[in-house]
Amino acid sequence: MAEITNEDIIRRIEQTERLMEEVQQLGYERTNELGAKIERVASDTKDMVAAFNAAQGAFKVLEWIAKIAKPLMVITSTIGAAYLWSKGYRG
């Protein structure tokens, strides 16, 4: 069996330290990549929520127009019929 010297132990410790530094660096890089992806998703989600809120506002306006349109059509039709009746129109 080979005897382990102090130099062997020091060399192995140095190798282990280098490997740990590489692993740590990869961890930092991966964490930064994930952070950037999370920020992009948050930004995209924010834009989607803003678009949804804008669309929701547009639908509210359309509902108001629809509520006004029916009585307006009845009034316009009544006025048009009264006008035609007064002119003696016989379709």
What does this structure look like?
- There is one protein chain.
- Helices cover 89% and strands 0% of the residues.
- With 91 residues, the chain is mainly alpha-helical.
- The longest helix is centred in the middle third of the chain and has 81 residues.
- It contains 1 helix and no strands.
Can you count the helices? 1
> How many distinct beta strands?
0
Beta-strand fraction estimate = under 5%
> Separation of termini?
118 Å
Q: Assembly type of the shown chains?
A: single chain
Characterize the main sheet: none
The overall average pLDDT, rounded, is 90
Principal-axis shape: rod-shaped
Q: What is the rounded Rg?
A: 39 Å
Low-confidence stretches: none
SSE class: mainly alpha
How much helical structure, as a percent, in the residues?
A: over 70%
Q: Helix-strand pattern, N to C?
A: H
Could you give the topology of this structure?
Layout: H1 6-86
Defining key terms:
91 residues
In brief, what are we looking at here?
This protein is mainly alpha-helical.
